[in-house]
Amino acid sequence: SRSVARRVLPWPLEINSDRLLRRIRELGLIGRNSATGGITRTGFSATDREGRDYLINEARVAGLVSRVDAAGNILIGMADGQGQRPTLVMGSHIDTVVNGGRLDGAYGVLAALEVLQVCAESDFHGSCELMAVAFANEEGALFPQPFFGSMVVSGRLADLPAEPQDHHGHSLREPLKQVGGDLATLDGAVWPAGSVAAYLELHIEQGPVLEHGGHQIGVVDAITGRCILTVEIHGTAAHAGTTPMDARHDAVTAACRVVLAVESLSRDRQVCRVSTVGRIDVHPNSPNTIAGVVRLTADLRDTDSKRLSEAETAIRDTMASLAEQTGTEITVVSRVRSAPVSTSAELRTSIRQSAAELGFDHITLPSGAGHDAQMVAGVAPIAMIFVPSRAGVSHCPEEETDADHLMAGAQVLLRTAIHIAEL
Ligand code: HGY
Ligand code: MN
Ligand code: MN
Ligand code: MN
């Protein structure tokens, strides 16, 4: 295939900006709340299914072929793909947080689709097969198993619960089946060792660094580690008017102490870099009933694996003593851990070269957000390309990136893919 790759290309291949921007716009309407402008396509929800159908249809119209693996990941390839190894995979996720933006994840997937389409249209065939992927449930907003799809392809099945459930206790089994996946055959979705030559993820920065510095492109050197705990606090539901204060086992007040302890991990104790409780569910959530159960999430992050472990131990210890003090039962019902990872030096060089050839100003920076790439890092060399986020905000409706930056990132992805595939 070397000789094929070296034949004269209609170089430089160009991203079709109208097409890419149209798709970003159209996918951004799916799950959009017209009042807030925010997008809610939580993984395996009805709106997520709509978004997935949109992507699969766009790929079909583009003359590409899609399939869905057992984990619900959407894999898009060239129509004449031979299943020839190794594969250069590009992508991200299209599920969102609750009331999020239209670019987080979706941009990287649609740009990957665009790269495939441009290469297919120009009949580019390098030494690698090209594949675009939309990983299932990266955010973990409804089913608290973030990175679900990328954990499966990278073989981390043992780290997933046997029966994943959403925040309301419903099994993943049916929702996964509805998108064409199957919990019983997840092992069939694991990417065999050596089958993926490289994984490239283009993403918005979600922070202020590129914009502040006036840079067009960010080359990610490391991705933060995360430990995400789902915690249940069991007290005793009782009447708010008749139960004396000293006879209560109030799950809400116990939960408040847990929330402050999580914040304190990073703010006061500085055990890890940042720590957040972003979701709280109260049961029965009724004004005149002392809450019986609270379920909350704790998201701990650090680029140092040891500090992350220390933070997890510290919060588990604190929760044990809080349970005793408050007369409640506090248990960790699910845990997802993603280690901090470095990107491939070789791929970083390739991205920098592509950016330089295209005349884009670039810097190297770490990622404080988690990404599917850090799971894939277990089975393939990975790299990430960042573009600026307006005002540095993300996971909210105000998330935005200028069109010229979106195009610059996609051009760098295309060029880097061709450099890699030509080798
Ligand atoms: O939360 C994260 O860092 C990622 O966007 N899921
Ligand atoms: Mn996100
Ligand atoms: Mn993302
Ligand atoms: Mn009553």
From TrEMBL:
Cofactor dependency: Zn(2+)
UniProt binding sites for Zn(2+) 2: 104, 139, 395
Top-level taxon: Bacteria
GO molecular function, one term: hydrolase activity, acting on carbon-nitrogen (but not peptide) bonds, in linear amidines
Domain Peptidase M20 dimerisation: 229-325
Keywords (A to Z) from UniProt: Hydrolase, Metal-binding, Zinc
Cofactor note: Binds 2 Zn(2+) ions per subunit.
Binding site for Zn(2+) 1: 93, 104, 203
Pfam family, one: M20_dimer
InterPro entries assigned to the protein according to its UniProt record, in alphabetical order: Amidase_Cbmase, Bact_exopeptidase_dim_dom, Peptidase_M20, Peptidase_M20_dimer
Alphabetized NCBIfam families for the sequence: hydantase, PRK09290.1-5
Protein family membership: Belongs to the peptidase M20 family.
Cited PANTHER family: ALLANTOATE AMIDOHYDROLASE, ALLANTOATE DEIMINASE-RELATED
Protein name: N-carbamoyl-L-amino-acid hydrolase
Organism ancestry: Bacteria, Bacillati, Actinomycetota, Actinomycetes, Pseudonocardiales
